[in-house]
């Protein structure tokens, strides 16, 4: 059995995990491969066990896409012919494991015992007090609860998906796993998943931003299709990638529904999540798509301002186009060339969003707001991704009734952002 070995070229691990835009390149060795497709009992209960990956129980099919990776006009597979066959194999495998009792049990156990699920739904008393003061109502203002994905093993929601997909890679008999990481959270999660399944993992860095790391990882995958699994960290790319990532992340919303019931005997009124490309947002939202009385709110990075050209606010100012294998909203110029995104939260520097997120915008089911770097720094949550996007957006506050139960997805912890904070001068609220 091998352990996870992380090699970094030229710089210490902490740097790669914080500011570098690295690419994880993992090599699997000595893993028992399951190639059989034994259809066993579907795991369906009305109240699934803690940490379980949910199966689909909701009927609102319209909002859930056509099952073939199409959400309205978004999604699809815009890929060269050579990729069609591996993507079809992946789709078959994914559809199989969704209903495979053995797979689901192993994943549920790993999420509970390795990741530490379920993550708490925490009443944030001081944040509640803060919003009470600025909401200027005579009553109590909204109540803020944090879904603490930052307390997961490795410090973010990324591990939920990394584990699920590593298990699929193992089933497909892939000898290598390639993944792209921006801020490092998905890189660490992939390395941890590889460690769990005795896979060897090497970290390389590439020049550029998160989008360049994805391009490089896809290039590497395309050149090694026979042996390599591309482990996508977010809900972009050709079908079935967005669907798979969303499915593995939807444990967040399932838990939230149960916990809300336990805590206050009802549902949340509002769900808030940052939108880099959309995996933590969809992870929280998906369970509630059919609950029309639950508002879904995404927050994008406005960087230095929407007029500055330095932001990642794809939904606010982007247009529809094709990038990295699917159709969605993108930041692009008049010629369709992709624009360079910017955010203080490195993992948010992606010039697009997942197709399902675009569809939620266009269908009007979700609302989207923006927050600048400055607003992010002045926020209170630990991670910039969570600060900037998942702090309740100022524009939302006047629309919240007194006592509204607002769940904010705290998607990751903030130690990796400390360097940036120190460089910019720590705000007094965080000292
Ligand atoms: C902690 C954390 N939250 C959010 C994001 C943004 O990605 P997504 O929108 O897919 O959740 C990232 C991306 O690196 C992240 O590391």
Beta-strand percentage? 15-25%
Largest sheet: number of strands, sense, barrel closure: 6 strands, mixed
| Coarse morphology | globular
- The unreliable regions are 1-59, 380-390
* N-to-C span: 45 Å
CATH architecture of the largest domain: 3-Layer(aba) Sandwich
Would you tell me the overall average pLDDT?
82
Portion of residues within helices:
25-40%
**DSSP strand tally:** 14
User: Structural class given helices, strands, pairing?
Assistant: alpha/beta
**SSE run:** HEEEHHEHEHEHEHEHHEHEHEEHEHHEH
Number of domains: 2
How is the CATH topology of the largest domain named?
Rossmann fold
Describe the structure.
By secondary structure, the chain is α/β, with parallel strands linked by helices. The protein folds into two domains: 165 residues, Rossmann fold, CATH 3.40.50; 214 residues, Rossmann fold (3-Layer(aba) Sandwich). Helix content is 35%, strand content 17%. The protein is built from 15 helices and 14 strands. It has a six-stranded mixed beta sheet with strand order 4-5-14-9-10-13, with helices on both faces. Strands 7-1-6-8 form a four-stranded mixed beta sheet, with helices on both faces. Strands 2-3 form a two-stranded antiparallel ribbon. α5 packs across α8. The radius of gyration is 20 Å and the shape is globular. 53% of the residues are buried. The N terminus is likely disordered. The structure holds pyridoxal-5'-phosphate. InterPro entries: Trp_synth_b_CS (IPR006653), Trp_synth_beta/beta-like (IPR023026), TrpB-like_PALP (IPR001926), TrpB-like_PALP_sf (IPR036052). It comes from Brassica napus (Rape). Its EC number is 4.2.1.20. Keywords: Amino-acid biosynthesis, Aromatic amino acid biosynthesis, Lyase, Pyridoxal phosphate, Tryptophan biosynthesis. It catalyses: (1S,2R)-1-C-(indol-3-yl)glycerol 3-phosphate + L-serine = D-glyceraldehyde 3-phosphate + L-tryptophan + H2O.
């Amino acid at each position: 059995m091998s352990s996870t070995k992380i090699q970094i070229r030229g710089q210490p691990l902490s740097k790669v995990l914080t500011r570098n835009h690295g690419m994880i390149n993992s090599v699997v060795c000595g893993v028992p491969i399951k190639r059989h497709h034994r259809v066993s009992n579907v795991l369906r209960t009305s109240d699934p066990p803690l940490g379980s990956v949910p199966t689909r129980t909701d009927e609102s099919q319209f909002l859930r896409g056509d099952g073939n990776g199409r959400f309205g006009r978004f999604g699809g597979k815009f890929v060269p012919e050579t990729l069609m066959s591996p993507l079809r194999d992946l789709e078959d495998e994914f559809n199989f494991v969704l209903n495979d009792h053995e797979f689901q049990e192993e994943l549920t156990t790993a999420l509970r015992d390795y990741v530490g699920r379920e993550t708490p739904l925490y009443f944030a008393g001081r944040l509640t007090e803060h919003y009470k003061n600025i909401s200027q109502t005579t009553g109590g203002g909204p109540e803020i609860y944090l879904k603490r994905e930052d307390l997961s093993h490795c410090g973010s929601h990324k591990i939920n998906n990394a584990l699920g997909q590593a298990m699929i890679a193992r089933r497909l008999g892939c000898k290598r796993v390639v993944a792209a990481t921006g801020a490092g959270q998905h890189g660490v999660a992939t390395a941890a998943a590889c460690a769990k399944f005795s896979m060897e993992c090497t970290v390389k860095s590439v020049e550029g931003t998160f989008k360049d790391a994805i391009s490089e990882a896809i290039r590497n995958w395309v050149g090694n299709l026979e042996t390599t699994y591309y482990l996508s960290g977010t809900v972009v790319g050709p079908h079935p990638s967005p669907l798979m990532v969303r499915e593995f992340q939807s444990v967040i919303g399932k838990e939230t529904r149960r916990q809300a019931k336990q805590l206050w005997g009802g549902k949340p009124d509002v769900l808030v999540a940052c939108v880099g490309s959309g995996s933590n947002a969809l992870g929280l939202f998906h369970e509630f798509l059919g609950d029309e009385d639950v508002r879904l709110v995404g927050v994008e990075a406005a960087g230095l301002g929407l007029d500055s050209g330095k932001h990642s606010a794809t939904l606010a100012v982007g247009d529809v186009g094709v990038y990295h294998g699917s159709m969605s909203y993108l930041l692009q110029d008049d010629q369709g060339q992709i624009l360079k995104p910017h955010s203080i939260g490195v993992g948010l520097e992606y010039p697009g969003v997942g197709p399902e997120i675009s569809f939620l915008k266009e269908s009007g089911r979700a609302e989207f707001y923006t927050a600048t770097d400055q607003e992010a720094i002045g926020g209170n949550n630990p991670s910039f991704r969570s600060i900037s996007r998942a702090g309740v957006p100022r524009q939302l506050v006047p629309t919240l009734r007194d006592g509204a139960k607002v769940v904010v997805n705290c998607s990751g912890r903030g130690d990796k952002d400390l360097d940036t904070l120190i460089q910019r001068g720590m705000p007094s609220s965080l000292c």
